[in-house]
Amino acid sequence: MIEAANRALFLAIDAGAHPPGAILFAARALAQGLVPVAVAQFVFAWVRGDRARRGALLAATLAMLVGLGINQLIGLVYFHPRPFMIGLGHQYLAHPPDNSFPSDHGTFLWSLGFGLLAAGGAAALGTWMVLAGLLVAWARVYLGVHFPFDMAGALLVGLAMGGLVRALHRPVRAIALPPCLALYEAMLRLAHLPPALFPRAAAPARPRSRPPA
Predict the structure, then answer these.
(1) Where does residue 115 fall: left (phi above 0), alpha (psi -120 to 50 degrees), or beta otherwise?
(2) Per-residue pLDDT tens for 178-187?
(3) Is the dihedral of CA 32, 126, 199, 175 positive or negative?
(4) CB neighbours of residue 129 within 10 Å
(5) pTM as predicted
(6) Within 10 A of 59 (CB to CB), how many other CB atoms are there?
(7) What is the longest distance spanned by two Cα atoms in the chain?
(8) CA 130 to CA 146: how far, in whole Å?
(9) Is 90 exposed, middle or buried (0-12, 13-18, 19+ CB in 10 A)?
(10) Domain limits of the chain?
(11) Of the candidates 176, 175, 136, 149, which has an alpha carbon nearest to the alpha carbon of residue 35?
């Protein structure tokens, strides 16, 4: 029954035999482009971040790695074919015929997003990552390389990683962040780069109020 619902929902989202060209182009751009954009945003947030934000970014990154590791363990004990491997729907994105459950793309974005929301310090970026995960989920199902339940599994892993960050972000900031900052600063010195590559603009000074005459 679950597999029948999974297939029916996939066919409802699948692009079909003759998808509109603009929607197909947008789906491919979302499916392939949002993860590199997310990585670039993450790096930029680290470069410009203060200690609290970098602690949140580090905790979310560690949670993402754990989430992807969980995906690999799931794949060792449970294999689910992709739609095109069983001749279901229409494939519009090249992909190797490997395990589809859970989605690594979804796990990547949702682990980072929910991790940042749980850690605090980068709520806007975390919200964007969660929304990006939803867009990628739709695109990869639409293009025929994932089932909807693959994305549901990734969402559950991402939520679990948010819980992991909530439990561990304080120890991460206290124990793991200092050596990471030291390594980052040493790399900047070796590259002859300033400590603040993209410094924030200083807040304008408030005018002093004159005492009443």
Answers:
(1) alpha
(2) 999 999 889 8
(3) negative
(4) 27
(5) 0.89
(6) 29
(7) 86
(8) 18
(9) middle
(10) 28-89+98-190
(11) 136
Here the tokens at position 47 are 């470069």
For residue 11, what is the enclosing H or E element?
helix 2-13
164 neighbors 64 (Cβ within 8 angstroms): no
Q: Which residue do the tokens 């004990």 mark?
A: 77
E strand spans, the chain: none
Task: State which H helix or E strand residue 30 sits in.
Answer: helix 21-48
- Let me know the angle formed at the C-alpha of 62 by 190 and 187, rounded to the nearest 5 degrees: 0
Query: Among 112, 136, 133, which residue's Cα sits nearest to residue 123?
Result: 112
Q: Are 164 and 170 spatial neighbours (Cβ–Cβ below 8 Å)?
A: no
Q: What is the pLDDT of residues 57-110, one digit of tens each?
A: 999 999 999 999 999 999 999 999 999 999 999 999 999 999 999 999 999 999
Cα(31)–Cα(86) distance, integer angstroms:
21
Which tokens is 21 given? 């060209």
SS3 assignment, position 34: helix
